[in-house]
């Protein structure tokens, strides 16, 4: 019988997430598709890892002092992770989020005690963009730090030191490919760098949603966005500090429709309720598996739970308004 972990600090619940073999995707790809279940983190997403490393880094440098405040601009999940870590460490949190994000994320942040500031969705070049707004708030707030998840490389360090070694150990060192989408770039860059430190031959692939510019950047050297996506928290059209030097060997572009197909299949066939970014990651893993061929072993990330998107992804009216296919059971 395997011994179960006993922890003395609630923050030790972050990380060491399970890895599961996905049957449907594996059959589709003709190889093994494995998924890291990041929705089992206490904040319900992969962003708990970045939140913990960012806070610890700020503490170690003396920037974050007892009773201080953490300010961040986020699509939601990083804010949730930061709020939990801040509560455990005795800090206050101010979270700036685009008003287009799911109601569940907003309600969760308020429930966790974070001060939530909603701003209109805007391009990065706009001074009103949520990232720029959060930076200004941090500058104006006494005793505050700006988490700066996009360009704070403590983000990707969380995956170099944590997620990648976990994957390597769980796969017994037998892994041929890894893929996921990029938001800040911390996950793909950190896991990519971490895995290649074990085995340089591992193929690291970007799975990019429509509307992001990274696919074209890695394919032909040009940051050029095409189309659009409703996926929250992924899609990037600039090279963040976390993406600098990311070891991307291949790239795939995945539509919302393709991602939704895997969201539906994993829920109906395997009892996994995931969000759209996870569905897009799985679609990318299937594409990478087909490229690497029979017998290969590919890992991807299930970033968060579909239960965080009941008002959007699993809402018939919302799907129809976005001209997206409605799941059969919602019709």
Structural write-up:
- The structure is a single chain.
- With 331 residues, this protein is α/β, with parallel strands linked by helices.
- The chain is built from 11 helices and 10 strands.
- It has helices at 23-29, 47-60, 77-89, 103-111, 130-140, 154-170, 186-198, 214-220, 256-270, 276-292, 316-321; strands at 19-21, 32-37, 69-73, 92-98, 115-119, 144-146, 177-180, 203-209, 250-254, 297-302.
- Strands 1-2-10-7-8-9 form a 6-stranded mixed β-sheet, sandwiched between helices. It has a 4-stranded parallel β-sheet with strand order 5-4-3-6, sandwiched between helices.
- α3 (77-89) links the parallel β3 and β4.
- The N and C termini lie far apart (45 Å).
- The mean pLDDT is 95.
Record the SSE blueprint.
Layout: E1 19-21, H1 23-29, E2 32-37, H2 47-60, E3 69-73, H3 77-89, E4 92-98, H4 103-111, E5 115-119, H5 130-140, E6 144-146, H6 154-170, E7 177-180, H7 186-198, E8 203-209, H8 214-220, E9 250-254, H9 256-270, H10 276-292, E10 297-302, H11 316-321
Helix pairs in contact: 1-10, 2-3, 2-6, 6-7, 9-10
State the share of residues found in helices, binned by percent: 25-40%
Mean pLDDT: 95
Largest sheet: 6 strands, mixed
Q: Approximately what portion of the residues adopt beta-strand conformation?
A: 15-25%
The unreliable regions are: none
Instruction: Compute the separation of the termini in Å.
Output: 45 Å
Strand order of the largest sheet: 1-2-10-7-8-9
Instruction: Give the total of beta strands.
Output: 10
Radius of gyration: 19 Å
The helix/strand series, from N terminus to C terminus, equals EHEHEHEHEHEHEHEHEHHEH
Form type: globular
**DSSP helical segment count:** 11
Helix/strand/pairing category: alpha/beta
Give the oligomeric state: single chain
């Amino acid at each position: 019988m395997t011994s179960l972990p006993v922890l003395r600090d609630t923050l030790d619940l972050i990380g060491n997430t399970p890895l599961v073999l996905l049957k449907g995707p594996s059959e589709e790809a003709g190889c093994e598709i494995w998924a890291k279940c990041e929705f089992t983190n206490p904040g319900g997403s992969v962003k708990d890892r970045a939140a913990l490393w960012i806070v610890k880094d700020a503490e170690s440098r003396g920037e974050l002092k007892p009773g201080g405040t953490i300010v961040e601009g986020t699509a939601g999940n990083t804010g949730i992770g930061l709020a939990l870590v801040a509560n455990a460490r005795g800090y206050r949190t101010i979270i700036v989020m685009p008003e287009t994000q799911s109601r569940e994320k907003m309600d969760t942040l308020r429930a966790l005690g974070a001060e939530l500031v909603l701003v209109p969705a805007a391009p990065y070049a706009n001074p009103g963009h949520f990232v720029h707004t959060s930076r200004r708030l941090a500058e104006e707030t006494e005793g505050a730090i700006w988490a700066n998840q996009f360009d704070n490389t403590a983000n990707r360090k969380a995956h170099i030191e944590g997620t990648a070694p976990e994957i390597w150990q769980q796969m017994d060192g037998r892994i041929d490919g890894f893929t996921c989408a990029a938001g800040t770039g911390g996950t793909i860059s950190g896991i990519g760098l971490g895995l290649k430190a074990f085995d340089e031959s591992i193929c690291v692939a970007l799975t990019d949603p429509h509307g992001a510019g990274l696919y074209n950047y890695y394919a032909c050297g040009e940051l050029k966005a095409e189309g659009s996506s409703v996926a929250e928290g992924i899609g990037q059209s600039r090279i963040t500090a976390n993406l600098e030097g990311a070891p991307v060997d291949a790239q795939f572009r995945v539509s919302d429709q393709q991602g939704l197909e895997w969201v539906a299949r994993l829920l109906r066939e395997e009892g996994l309720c995931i969000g759209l970014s996870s569905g897009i990651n799985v679609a990318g893993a299937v594409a990478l598996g087909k490229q690497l061929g029979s017998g290969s072993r590919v890992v991807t990330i299930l970033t968060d739970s579909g239960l965080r998107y009941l008002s959007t992804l699993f809402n018939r009216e919302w799907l129809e308004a976005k001209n997206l296919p409605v799941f059969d059971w919602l019709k």
